[in-house]
Amino acid sequence: MTRDAPTGRLFAPLEVGPMMLRNRLAVAPMTRVSATADGRATRRMADYYAAFAEGGFGLVITEGIYTDKQYAQGYLCQPGLSDDGQREAWRPVVERVHGHGARMLAQLMHAGALSQGNPHQTQTRGPSAVRPKGTQMAFYRGSGSYPRPVAMSVAEIADAVQGFADAAVRARDAGFDGIEIHGANGYLLDQFLSEGINLRDDRYGGDLEGRLRLTAEVAEAVRAAVGPDVTVGVRISQGKVNDFVHKWRGGEAEAAALFEALGSLPIDYLHTTELEAWRPAFAVGPSLAALAKRHAGKPVLANGSLHDPAQALGLLERGEADLVSLGRGALTHPDWPRRVAEGAPIEAFDPSLLSPLADLENAERHRASRAAG
Question: Which domain holds residue 244?
Answer without folding.
Answer: 6-371
